[in-house]
């Protein structure tokens, strides 16, 4: 565990003393109307020294369930630490959130331009400012995401393989699944990893949607991590996960063999066997009904909830190899 001296914290040229609560503005840019666009950063500091934890969401503007998780951490006072410091940035891509779009106005995916540049595109400049003005002050990061394109993710933590610290934190968080996945080049996670900042990336739910099960999983997992670090206020209780985490070494997408109207017939998170019927594809005219059968045994960790699919579209994300 990282324990820092409880010294004055300086973020975006603002000093935050031990025991202070402060909201500062991440001055992103101006709209074409000359109106300023600010991203609020909510900082809560205990008088007692301890780690600094950063909660982030909304790197993609359409991933509102992550925003809801961080909102609840703030609204319920979970972000007021017993020791150390908690920083919350509920919406990083405020432009996308305002316009209900995944990308920045420049068309770029913020999560593919890190660490950014001081004089690059708008998305690149935001990434640069986050990495240089905020990240150096933190010890741990939990970043919340959702599935995209109508695909619903089971609550899961994504980390790289063979990292003992991340493994332990993932177990503490207690999501139903932990998926080993590589750090994508120029992503927020990859950049923080290279800077030596351990990050848990949470995936759950789908775009433009808030789901209570996903929200509860994110909030409860965050409380468990804060409790593990000795930071959770004593007025909050910590629940144990209902089931032990399933660690997934490998997974694969099962794709549609036909175009048509699609309906999954198995709940997300289910353990299935090869050959099980897990959905069906029909045409609008009642002329055919194609059963979708599982191509391998495993857990269903993502389901396409779009009612219309085309041949080759991803339908299910299924674990293919579990950690032993």
Automatic annotation (TrEMBL):
Entries under InterPro entries matching the protein: AstE_AspA_cat, N-alpha-Ac-DABA-like, N-alpha-Ac-DABA_deacetylase
Gene Ontology MF term list: hydrolase activity, acting on carbon-nitrogen (but not peptide) bonds, in linear amides; hydrolase activity, acting on ester bonds; metal ion binding
Keyword Metal-binding: yes
Succinylglutamate desuccinylase/Aspartoacylase catalytic domain segment(s): 49-228
Cofactor(s) recorded in Swiss-Prot or TrEMBL: Zn(2+)
UniProtKB keywords: Hydrolase, Metal-binding, Zinc
PANTHER family: BLL3975 PROTEIN (PTHR37326), SUCCINYLGLUTAMATE DESUCCINYLASE_ASPARTOACYLASE FAMILY PROTEIN (PTHR37326:SF2)
Full protein name: Succinylglutamate desuccinylase
Taxon lineage: Bacteria, Pseudomonadati, Bacteroidota, Flavobacteriia, Flavobacteriales
